[in-house]
Amino acid sequence: MDSNKLLNSFFQCTDLQSFIEIVSNMIECSVMVVDTSFHIVSCFTLADFNDPVYKSVVSHGELSIETSSDINENIEKAEENEFWIDRKEKKYRVSSLCCKNIRLGYLICIFDKNEEIRIKKEDFELIENFLSKQLFYERHHGDVLISTAEEILTELLDGEFSDEAHFKLQVDSTYLSNFKPWRFALIDLSSHSAGESKEHILSYLNGCFHGSHPFIYKGRIILFLHKDHDLGVLREHAQRYRLKIVVSSKLNGIYKMGDMYRNVEKVLDYLKNKSEYFMYMSDTFLVLMLLKDLCGRDDLIDDKIKLLLQYDLENNSEFCITLYTYLTCHHSLKKTCEQLYTHRNTVLYRIRKIKEDFEIDIDLPQNHLKYIISTALALIKLKKDEIFVNENEGLL
After folding, report:
1. 181-292 domain in CATH 1.10.1270?
2. Which residue, 30, 145, 190, 320, is the most exposed by fewest CB within 10 angstroms?
3. pLDDT (tens digit, 9 = 90+) per residue, 207-234?
């Protein structure tokens, strides 16, 4: 290995991730740096490297329990700063990253099981020395520790980041830089057993769902979910601890969580008094939440639909829901009757009255969208929420 090239790269790189990439290419193996809690701080994967276990670890943002235990066990009895962990097809070289006699984390280099290691011990030690300094620098400003991942996520949910670029700069030295969760769950504890503290439930969930990184935000738990997590187990915990859970739609990057959180929070607020415990998908309530946000916009309701709404309110009639259903069923009388569980003659009477008495022309195609939006908002005012959501379908 060219030590001078490594030294020049260290002085030229401005962040740990850039330096890790150079190190990985120089020693020709995939590498990762983890902190003392086994969260991934930085990693780089070679183009031809393919290991499902490694990819799962990176997407979860932390080492597996098995590997974490192996490191804890070996680090205490290792005579030198390095030791090896054997896996089925790979072998990991693990070494401590220390600065000022403080262990900051670990360097893990991943090789094929039977691969001959050509890197000299002193070269590894030089790499570890540079990485320790870079890690210390990124974790501290002078003697002040930078924000933790949880603090960064709190700032994200509070809307503190002006754009994604600033967010990425902040997460570079945390496990969030490579974190790729599938969804997240927002958990309300208002009905949970009084004998179980929030901290106990937090710890328990963290143990059950690897890489979930649960934390408390505004009195509720946020739990990250990955594709290999069993939602059935989470549902069992909802029943056991009397938890009210809403699961988000798919996350397309952790930064998107800021906007998605507000939608999930609205759904949970809407549902929290409906049952002692539950678990729903937020997607099921997307249209309903949108309509509730627009409920105060009377200017979006057509004047003729306003008269229809007023008639329904005064006479406890069902003209708005009949018109909405008829339009969304593409003028199919049969489907409208089936949806409303109403006799054909009754539906025909209502449609005729809508056309003649309220002068609503529902046959013109250009009126369809206007009347669908207007009647949908009217139904929200009539508290007909069930029209827009099938709670049984969204229940997990």
Report:
1. no
2. 145
3. 899 889 999 999 999 999 999 999 999 9
